[in-house]
Task: inverse folding
């Protein structure tokens, strides 16, 4: 590790001396709780507090070989130790403790947070904690770096306008909002929003209509589409937004707040189509738990994928994991592990595993495998000994939409996980669907993911 966390400064000099022998540039990053920080924590704006600390810490970490984080002193809102441990998790920084190691461990049972009284153990340890706050921060920073333009067709929805305002304030992405300029600006003014940096295009009246109508006709005439039908679709906000991506005016589209999944996906399937070698479009959810991010698929699109489709979903989801910086470890889920069970459903997963091995021989996967054996190291070692994915999976491929959708919602509600998606994978260019019950924050996260996808 390139950092460690001290709960207080009493051991700082000793730790600095030890680390200076091993690293040329050792910095100290002190956590301070002033009036501003107290106000954020007490007013329910904890997210702002943690993201501010994460950004400041990463800046120091990038300029030094090792960072010693000195924790804050006693604080009444959360409790001294609990707050410091939560900060350590969000910074993915192991805790160095000389005299209360066991007491600290008891406060975070079953946690991946390393708490040790051995500095060298911390230096050599591999800790990979990604909290919901750190994950959202990763998305923000990567999307900003990608510098892409995203189309938002649903200007009639206040949530879209509010999300646009938040994104534009931070200069994270460029936005094209579809709709009538006067209507959008009037509603934005009523809501106290600033959309001046957005580009507003009216699908009913614009410079691209003829070109888009012509493109739609050329792509769909073999399916019996007439020029008149193409001209009508060119004024449909979803078809128009999809074609803005195809003609290079934008890089991705996010829709679905007031549009059905079918209405969002149909134009993409007809006009953008799938990537070469990909047979199916699938829906991925990023499940951001307390200390890790897992990828679940397919939880949104294909009801009963056959073995070929399951293998394709596994490849697409593994590629998505790579795009966001993870080494994919794929679990093809079933109600039995290895050779312990039989039946048509298990046989389908086994056949998917055979196809997957041919499609992506370098991919690390386990199949068929039960969820507990895929997620828990001790269970995985018992049920599938010797398999490096068992107990360590971060990509979970479900055997059906029924199972996947139920599971992601159960985890989201029962474990209080942040579920971001569905993210459509397999398309040549990103088009992503929102739930009609989405929150403003959901829209923001989906836009960020779309921008990152477009940058790959």
Result:
């Amino acid at each position: 590790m390139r950092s460690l966390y001290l709960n207080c400064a009493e051991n700082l000099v000793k730790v600095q001396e030890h680390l200076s022998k091993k690293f040329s540039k050792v910095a100290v990053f002190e956590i301070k709780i002033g009036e501003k920080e107290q106000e954020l924590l007490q007013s329910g704006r904890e997210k702002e507090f943690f993201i501010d600390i994460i950004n400041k810490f990463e800046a120091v970490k990038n300029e030094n070989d090792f960072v010693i984080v000195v924790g804050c002193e006693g604080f009444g809102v959360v409790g001294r130790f609990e707050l410091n441990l939560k900060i350590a998790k969000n910074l993915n920084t192991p805790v160095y403790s000389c005299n209360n190691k066991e007491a600290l461990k008891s406060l975070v049972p079953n946690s991946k947070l390393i708490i040790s009284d051995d500095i060298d153990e911390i230096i050599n340890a591999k800790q990979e904690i990604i909290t919901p706050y750190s994950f959202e921060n990763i998305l923000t920073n990567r999307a900003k770096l990608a510098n892409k333009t995203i189309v938002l067709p649903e200007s009639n929805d206040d949530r879209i306008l509010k999300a646009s305002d938040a994104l534009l304030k931070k200069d994270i992405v460029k936005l094209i909002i579809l709709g009538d300029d006067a209507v959008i600006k009037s509603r934005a003014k009523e809501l106290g929003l600033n959309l001046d940096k957005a580009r507003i295009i009216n699908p009913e009246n614009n410079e691209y209509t003829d070109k888009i109508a012509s493109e739609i006709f050329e792509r769909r005439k073999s399916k019996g589409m007439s020029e008149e039908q193409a001209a009508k679709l060119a004024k449909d906000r979803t078809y128009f937004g999809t074609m803005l991506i195809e003609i290079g005016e934008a890089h991705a589209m996010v829709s679905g707040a007031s549009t059905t999944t079918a209405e969002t996906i149909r134009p993409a399937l007809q006009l953008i189509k799938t990537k070469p070698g990909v047979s199916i479009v699938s829906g991925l959810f990023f499940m951001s738990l307390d200390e890790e991010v897992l990828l679940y698929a397919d939880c949104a699109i294909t009801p009963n994928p056959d073995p070929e489709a399951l293998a394709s979903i596994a490849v697409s989801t593994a590629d998505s994991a790579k795009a966001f910086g993870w080494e994919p470890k794929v679990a093809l889920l079933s109600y039995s592990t290895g050779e312990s069970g039989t039946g048509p459903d298990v046989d389908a997963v086994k056949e998917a595993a055979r196809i997957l091995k041919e499609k992506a021989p370098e991919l690390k996967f386990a199949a068929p495998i039960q969820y507990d054996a895929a997620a828990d190291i001790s269970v995985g070692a018992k049920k599938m000994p010797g398999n490096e994915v068992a107990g360590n999976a971060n990509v979970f491929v479900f055997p059906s939409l029924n199972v996947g959708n139920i599971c992601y919602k159960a985890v989201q509600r029962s474990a209080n996980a942040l579920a971001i998606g569905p993210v459509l994978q397999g398309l040549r260019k990103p088009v992503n669907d929102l739930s009609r019950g989405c929150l403003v924050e959901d829209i923001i996260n989906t836009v960020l993911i779309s921008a990152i996808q477009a940058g790959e």
Remarks:
- The two ends are 28 Å apart (CA to CA).
- The mean pLDDT is 91.
